[in-house]
Design goal:
alpha/beta; Rossmann fold; 2 domains; 12-stranded mixed sheet; 11 helices; 12 strands; binds S-adenosylmethionine; binds zinc ion
Length: 319
Amino acid sequence: MRKSLLNLIYCPICKAQQFDLSITQENPAEIREATVTCRNCQRAYSVHDGILDILINPSQEILNEQTGWTQLEQMVVNTDELMLSLPDGIGEHKAAWQSQAENFHYLWSQVQLTGGETVLDLGAGRCWATRYFARQKCNAVGLDVLLTRYVGLKTADVYLEKESVYFDRICGDMHQIPLRKNAFDIVFMAATLHHSADIQATLQQVYDVLKPNGRLIMVNEPVVGMFASKALSCPEVEHGINEHVYRYMEYRQALRVLKMDYQLYPFIGGYHPVITKANHLLVKTFPKQLMPKRVWRPFLIAQLLAYGGILNLIARKRA
Ligand SMILES: C[S@@+](CC[C@H](N)C(=O)[O-])C[C@H]1O[C@@H](n2cnc3c(N)ncnc32)[C@H](O)[C@@H]1O
Ligand SMILES: [Zn+2]
């Protein structure tokens, strides 16, 4: 954590914005061990391994999420090299990451950054995307409930040490984001919103932290088709992780309530195998033509509505 992070947070207990900082260990890049105390209610928050832990009274849902991801982490061989390769992956991990990587790279090519933007990577997990913003000299913060190295925020040390980038990390809840209103130019979410049981409440939190004209960038968000069941069975669910699937209209409605205008972007991957295959084939055969010009918009909406797929979008908070 760097001291400047104190200008972005508020105390989730009493909402005060003034803190005392007591540092016990720091290195040239950041404060590694410290206590941050709210000047108003005296609640103390720890900084451990550079991560500010501001998660208060985690719900059973959050505890399940933490346990589930930690169990899943132990089921594969994780290495620093794999983390440094993300989102593309290496070796046997490449196939699992392929769609996510292609969706990310395409959307990333559409996000024009000037550098210096204040960015929140919400549900940052390993922070591979947070470091993309940091490389562009953004003031980036990764927030997640998960600390475990190789799935959670502690992975950030790999990027900080080996790529010489810097970004802050906060252990916190997307349902109660402990960050100040109108403070962020960009909120980025990769495959995270569907981990919320209440997307409207979570998007309201996102809206609040965005500056007027600020952008919400969402990538790799699964969408279920109108005829498909919302029941899920996957290793994540078996390990108690909060996987939900929402229909396109549910995302649309949530953004409408907030009066956020948005642009959809084409995707690779999805749930209907035939559509997924055709989609992969088309976009990979004609990447220059299809991805940049965007798949014909009504077709994209029809596809998301009927068969589901992946939601990639950029929404804007009105000025
Ligand atoms: C599918 S992972 C995506 C991680 C990362 N964005 C990526 O693309 O690799 C979903 C992430 O959401 C996080 N998450 C789940 N519930 C959360 C909550 N209530 N607040 C913050 N993060 C949460 C999980 O810990 C996990 O890191
Ligand atoms: Zn307080």
